[in-house]
Amino acid sequence: MNASHDFLNARGAATDAPCGIAREIEHEQTVPVTIARETILAWSAARDIERLGALCRLIQAPNVAVEPPLSFAEYAGIVLPYLRRCIDEDPRGEWAESRASAATTFRHWFAWLWRHRARWQSELLRLKAWLHETVAAADEATRACLVAAVLEPLLDDPAIARYFADWRAMPATARAYADAFRRRETRRLIDAA
Asked: Where are the domains of the chain?
């Protein structure tokens, strides 16, 4: 079954769209669903973090196709503000990710782009700039989470460590970079013992 506009008209009119649709799609994971790009972009204007969380799950679900597909800029324009809110607010809802989960989601996304960096150079720069801004604005607990969930694991890759080496000289990120390396070295010593 391929979901059509009728699927969305029947279910999308619900007051919790996209939450209700995401719930149904998660329940029926093998049923392919197509959602119009315009619908996704309209839903992305939601201010409710739970709805944004449901939307992000929808656009990442393997059985959901967005037609026509979202550009990287459109995708990032939905996902990055959502992740930033999750990192800043640390919500505890059904759909929205916790701070640690959102940081891990970002790390996996960055790592995937890094593995395909020949194609995604400008996008990696955008994500690096986003992370810089997020770390610079973070309070102590949020910065510690970003160090543990994003920077420390990423800096295990020597090429990524070189990519972020400029952070050592930037006041807003120097401490986070140094903390990530300290944590990494401590972990290696513990693992070697």
From this structure: 1-75, 98-193
